[in-house]
C-alpha cells in the first residue's frame, strides 16, 4: 500500500445507491486518499467486485474467511485513518448498533479505533422507522458520525427523506469529521528524506537502503494539513508531489548546504533522511579497475542534524530520526539529548526491516521524556502521529 497517501476504507452497503459510491471513491482519490473498498456481500448484487477493483486498484474481499492468513479485519483496521460507509442500509445500521461482526466490513469496524462516518440511504419509511432512529442514536452516542439523508426522488415513484446525499456534501462532512482541518496552516516545514550517496568513483558509491518513503509521507501529511513544505530528497525514485517544493540532492554535503540555506525560514525541521556517516577521502574521475582495489580511506561527514540543531532558534521545532539494530529506545533517548531535539522517531532496522517498506514501527520520544510505542502500521499513519505531536507542541508554545 502507498506510503504517500492517506489510507481509508470505503465500506459499501447493499442498497441501490451503491453505484453512487463509485463517484465518491473517485473524488476521494482526487484528494490523495488511498482507498480499500470493503463491500458487504449483498452489495455485490448492485456493484460487483470487478468494478471496485478496477476503480481502487486493489483487491476486494467481503468475508473474514477469505485470505485468512492476512487477518484482513485487523490489518485493514490498523492501516485505515478513517472508515466511511456509503450507502448504509437499515439492516447494516442495525448490525453495527448491535455490535455484530458477520462479514469483513462489520469485523473491520469492530476492530478499528479510527473515525467512522456513515451515509444512510433507504426508503423514507425505513429511515423514519423507530428501530432505525434508535440505532442512529446508539451509534451517534458511540462516536459514529451519521449524515442525514436528503429529501428527493428515490427508486420508482417514491420520494421523501432517504436519498443518498450529493458527493460534494459527503466529502465536505467527512473531511470535517476526520479532523482534516488546516492545523498547520501558515507553518513552514523543511523535511529531508531519502539516503545520501558518496562517490567512490564515477560508477560506485557508499550508500544505504533508505527509499525516502517516510519523509515523503510526512511531507504529504504536512501539506494536507496546510503547511508550506520544502522537501530535500536524496536518491529516491519517488516522483515529485504536487504542492510540495522538492529539491533533489545526492551527497551529504549537498543536502547539508541546501538545508542550511533554508533553515532560517522554517518553523519545523524534520530530518528523516538517512545520511551517510562517512565518505571516501578521494573520488577519482576515472573508474577504479578491479585489480587496483585494495582499500578505501574514509573521512567522516559532518553531523547535519547536530549542526542545524545547534544553530536553531528557540522557536524552531526539530524532529530527528534514528535507525538502530539494538537497544532501540535507549539509543533514541541518547540521540535526542545529545542533539538537543524536540522529538526523535527511532526504529529497528535489523535484518533490513523498515527501509523501502510501506510499513514502520518504532518509538516516538519527546524532549519531555514521553515515549510512544508505535506498533507496525503504514508510514502514512506514522507521519500523522508525528505531526499530531508536533501540532500539540506548537500549540503549547503559542498558548
TrEMBL record:
List the EC numbers from the record: 4.1.1.36, 6.3.2.5
Catalysis performed (reactions): N-[(R)-4-phosphopantothenoyl]-L-cysteine + H(+) = (R)-4'-phosphopantetheine + CO2; (R)-4'-phosphopantothenate + L-cysteine + CTP = N-[(R)-4-phosphopantothenoyl]-L-cysteine + CMP + diphosphate + H(+)
Name the cofactor(s): Mg(2+); FMN
Domain called DNA/pantothenate metabolism flavoprotein C-terminal: residue spans: 184-392
Q: In which pathway does it act?
A: Cofactor biosynthesis; coenzyme A biosynthesis; CoA from (R)-pantothenate: step 3/5; Cofactor biosynthesis; coenzyme A biosynthesis; CoA from (R)-pantothenate: step 2/5
Keyword field contains Lyase: yes
Q: Which SUPFAM superfamilies would you find in this protein's record?
A: CoaB-like (SSF102645), Homo-oligomeric flavin-containing Cys decarboxylases, HFCD (SSF52507)
NCBIfam families per record: coaBC_dfp
**Mind telling me what this protein is named?**
Coenzyme A biosynthesis bifunctional protein CoaBC
**Organism expressing this protein natively:** Candidatus Planktophila limnetica
